[in-house]
Amino acid sequence: MLTKIPIAIDEVTDIQPAAFKSQYVDGHRPLIIRGGVSHWPAMQWNSNEYLLKIAGDQRVKVDVFPLSKQGKILLESGSEEVMSIKDFTMKFFQEDCYHYISDQNLPPPLYQDLNEHCVSSVFPVERRRTFWWGKNGQKSFLHYDDNENFMCQFDGEKAFLLFDITDFDYLYPKDETEYRSLADLEQHDSNQFPLLAKATPYVARISPGDVLYVPCYWWHQVKSFGRNIAVSYIINESMEQRVRVTGKLIEAGALPVSDSIRDDLLNIIGLDETPSRRNALLKKYHREYQQQQGKSYYPHSIFHRLIEENLLDILYGHATY
């Protein structure tokens, strides 16, 4: 079980792009901007009548989850249906199952109600905007994402439990390719997941009009309260950020290598070179190791994602340089 006292995420009501970049993006730290989108037209999304008027005919993919006899949402048993937003609102309060619009590309008519927060100017490329509409009790798996995320809340509240990437080895990825954890933080066996006791939890709760910046590769689990609508601004992480995250993982001991190799890799990361050049040197070092030892020292695909993916991946919406 978690034993460390949770740390509250920093909160501001206003912040300039330069300060946001230096303190939070470069610091690889999450941040709540209270009221950051409270003046946007999307605050009208607390009304079904308004949403049906402008986007009721839009078709979306809906996750449908059965409920246990105790009313628990059975995440592992979900299916997917395509329906209009109008039909979704009619099924929203069904008692035998749970309907949830999650991580969908934002329906085009809803773009008119969004703006840009000034701090988003620090990022070079926005990948997409995703739409989330659920209700009380919805909970995500503990997982990490390979992108920067601005979660803009327009109705209901969301509670986040977050962990820095430096706790990677304590959070039980399902296997060497998974971005999700085996552990359910609300109900788990401490004997089954003893390393969770070493992890440092961070907490954030956002309300309508708030924005939460979740840095790339931070682990998080999310729980929703009330009728719940949000939009995520999904932003490609920069090569600078990828090198930074690689350094944090190596410093935390997430690579099973000797001290001399660890020092070599950290020296590369600390060079006064461009992020792309340092990334190229990390790739070269790994190739030479493979040639000499006949194996990789990457214990998980996150290292392949951070170090090995190249310019071609930009075309598929992954990395930016």
TrEMBL record:
Keywords: Iron, Metal-binding, Oxidoreductase. Signal peptide: none annotated. Residues 95-252 form the JmjC domain. This is Cupin-like domain-containing protein. InterPro entries: Cupin_8, JmjC_dom. It comes from Spartinivicinus poritis. The lineage of its organism: Bacteria, Pseudomonadati, Pseudomonadota, Gammaproteobacteria, Oceanospirillales. SUPFAM superfamilies: Clavaminate synthase-like. Gene3D superfamilies: Cupin. Its cofactor is Fe(2+).
